[in-house]
Amino acid sequence: MTTTVGDARQLGAAIRQARVQLGLSQAELATDAKVGRQWLVGLEAGDKGSAPLNMVLRVLAALGQSVVLDPGAARPPASSSRPPVAIVITAEDILARYTLNPSGAPGSRGPEA
């Protein structure tokens, strides 16, 4: 099932719904996602409009959820002659890209990449 969210409140409600469907408590999800339980309470309440993206993505990954950017959800600029392109990426893909390789070996990636 795909859920469209447009703000922090809707995202929080979607996260809570997914957590409840999986039978997880807030404490269990917080532990799995490596975030604080009180922080998760705020996220589910929609009080984290400026939450760090990596923390939100860890919560989504712990729920087995992914992020889908849908160009059909927003109107393209009038001057755009290109057809919209849907981008589908999982939370794990995003986290992997921004997780530094501790050895610093070639191929390690970070936010500057």
Q: Would you give an account of this structure?
A:
The structure is a single chain. The protein has 113 residues and is mainly α. It has a single domain, classed as Orthogonal Bundle (434 Repressor (Amino-terminal Domain)). It has five helices and two strands, in the order ααααββα. It has a two-stranded antiparallel ribbon. α2 (26-33) crosses α3, α2 crosses α4 (53-62) and α4 packs across α5 (91-97). The longest helix is centred in the N-terminal third of the chain and has 14 residues, at 8-21. The radius of gyration is 16 Å and the shape is globular. The two termini are 32 Å apart.
Low-confidence parts, pLDDT < 50 over ≥5 residues?
Answer: 108-113
**What form results from the Cα inertia axes?**
globular
Mean pLDDT: 80
CATH level-two architecture = Orthogonal Bundle
Could you give a short account of the major beta sheet? 2 strands, antiparallel
Strand arrangement within the widest β-sheet reads 1-2
The CATH class is identified as Mainly Alpha
CATH topology, by name, is: 434 Repressor (Amino-terminal Domain)
In short:
Helices cover 42% and strands 7% of the residues.
Which features does this protein show?
single chain; 113 residues; mainly alpha; 434 Repressor (Amino-terminal Domain); two-stranded antiparallel ribbon; 5 helices; 42% helix; 7% strand
